[in-house]
Amino acid sequence: MAQISFKGTPVNTNGSLPAVGSLAPDFALVNTDLSTINLADFTGKKLIINVFPSVDTGVCALQLKAFNQKIAGKDDVALLFVSLDLPFAFKRFCGAEGIENAVTASDFRDQSFADAYGVKLIDGPLAGLLTRAVIVLDESHTVTYSELVPEITTEPDYDAAMAAL
């Protein structure tokens, strides 16, 4: 369990992010076409996993747009957006915002990602949703960077994540 805050009030997650140097746990997420996405789908590429509460909030939208722009033209890097939003919300948002450099995936079916990565909020007003975090993996799925954003209403450290690539 990790403690962070939401608007200054302490809240807790259901676990801890995978440690730098460890192999990333597998997951089963749902893509916008309702197919299943697993970690193996990103074999051979560096991966930025961008975790957030909901695509329909201001900071989350900024986070998605920022990472989308930062990896444009980087063919060896994949960007994965993860939340509990339904795939239909992702499709709507990405279409409206012109986000083309990311794979969007929902953990709504079995929350295997939330459990494996320790990012589910277990208390506070957003209990049940995912918190804000960034995990960077190398081509062999080893964690090279992880950030559990200490205040959910703030953006992650984009520069540190990009430097970990």
Describe the structure.
The structure is a single chain. The chain has 165 residues and is an alpha/beta fold. It has a single domain (3-163), classed as Glutaredoxin (3-Layer(aba) Sandwich). Helix content is 22%, strand content 25%. The protein has a five-stranded mixed beta sheet with strand order 7-6-5-8-9. The chain is globular, with a radius of gyration of 14 Å. The model has no long low-confidence stretch (mean pLDDT 91).
Give descriptors for this structure.
165 residues, alpha/beta, Glutaredoxin, five-stranded mixed beta sheet, two-stranded antiparallel ribbon, 4 helices, 22% helix
In short, what is this structure?
The chain is of the alpha/beta class and 165 residues long.
Strand order of the largest sheet: 7-6-5-8-9
As for the CATH topology, it is Glutaredoxin
Low-confidence stretches: none
- CATH architectural type: 3-Layer(aba) Sandwich
Secondary structure tally, helices: 4
Mean model confidence by pLDDT: 91
Major sheet characteristics? 5 strands, mixed
- Tell me, briefly, the overall form: globular
> What is the total number of structural domains?
1
What CATH first level would be assigned? Alpha Beta
Question: What is the helix fraction of residues, given as a range?
Answer: 10-25%
Cα-atom radius of gyration: 14 Å
Summarize the topology.
Layout: E1 3-6, E2 9-12, E3 28-30, E4 36-38, E5 46-51, H1 58-70, E6 77-83, H2 87-97, E7 103-106, H3 112-117, E8 133-137, E9 143-148, H4 158-163
Parallel strand pairs: 5-6, 6-7
Antiparallel strand pairs: 1-2, 3-4, 5-8, 8-9
